[in-house]
Design brief:
Length: 295
């Protein structure tokens, strides 16, 4: 399990490191355009193709959705204790890298059935990104939902997927364009995270909030998820997948989300990096725990 986790996580961490290095070398270059490309091109493309191709069932959505709502409500209330850092703590606690890192790990550990359940979890993460903006800031602002492209892309992708209208049936010249963007989106977003982190000045305050993010995302959140699956009796493979996906490091999209809403995206990028690094050690532990509980 340890070697599987290393194989899945280290390449992503190295891409973040490359982005960080580029950001340090070209420190005077503006990041505004890079952010806009991530928000309006890369993330919507990945969202649409993913949801359209792997449209989840209603039953799995219900079980995982209840768990996601409980996790989100818990950490929304919990984040209120952090005052000016509440948005950062909330987003980095609930936004899991369920797709980019979750898929290869689930496939290696428990096979294609686990991967299919991972797709459901990742779908809910994408759905959550359409709702989270309303809960960020000093008060509930539902108009924030209209500031991001997810709210427009997600229902179209879900509806076309259910109707059997798949993006892979597009004319070859359009399909090739979409697939090229899709293939470059994940490494681009990881590079963007590295660029964002390169602008962070590491100090005692950052180390403190970084430690909080690591604990919340890699220990506290999966512990809450484990409590849910035991009480809800989400046994077997579904229970293992739900907890392990929750134990994944902070999602790359959390940086994009906070950047779009003028939040603390630099610290979020730092959180993505450090949780990705420490997840190399925590994920095998969670996998072993789950194997012992859900036989």
């Amino acid at each position: 399990m340890l070697s599987t986790t290393f194989t899945a996580i280290l390449p992503s961490f190295f891409i973040i490191l490359i982005g960080y290095t580029v950001g340090k070398i070209f420190s005077r270059e503006a990041m505004g355009l890079a952010s806009k490309i991530a928000i309006w091109v890369m993330v919507p493309t990945v969202t649409f193709t993913f949801v359209n191709e792997f449209t989840p069932s209603v039953s799995n959505l219900k079980d995982f959705g209840i768990g996601m709502v409980i996790l989100s409500l818990f950490f929304y209330l919990y984040s209120r204790f952090f005052r000016e850092k509440k948005d950062l703590v909330f987003v980095t606690s609930v936004a899991s890298n369920a797709g980019y890192l979750g898929y290869p790990i689930l496939l290696s550990l428990w096979g294609e059935e686990a991967l299919a359940l991972g797709v459901v979890y990742a779908f809910l993460i994408v759905l959550m990104y359409t709702i989270l903006p309303a809960f960020l800031g000093k008060k509930l602002e539902f108009k924030n939902l209209l500031r991001l492209p997810y709210i427009y892309v997600l229902p179209i992708a879900f509806l076309t997927g259910k109707l059997g209208w798949h993006y892979k049936d597009l004319p070859p010249y359009i399909l090739s364009t979409v697939q090229m963007i899709k293939g470059s989106a994940i490494p681009y977003l990881l590079l963007y995270v590295g660029l964002s982190v390169s602008k962070v000045k590491v100090g005692k305050h950052l180390l403190k909030i970084g430690a909080t993010i690591i604990f919340n995302k890699l220990v506290f959140a999966p512990l809450i998820a484990l409590g849910f699956v035991v009480i809800y009796k989400l046994n077997g493979l579904a229970g293992k997948v739900f907890v392990l996906e929750t134990a994944m490091p902070v999602a790359v999209n959390s940086v994009v989300l906070l950047a779009a809403l003028n939040g603390d995206d630099e610290t979020a990028g730092f959180g993505v990096t450090v949780t990705t690094f420490f997840a190399v050690f925590t994920l095998p532990i969670w996998a072993i725990i789950l194997e012992s509980i859900f036989i």
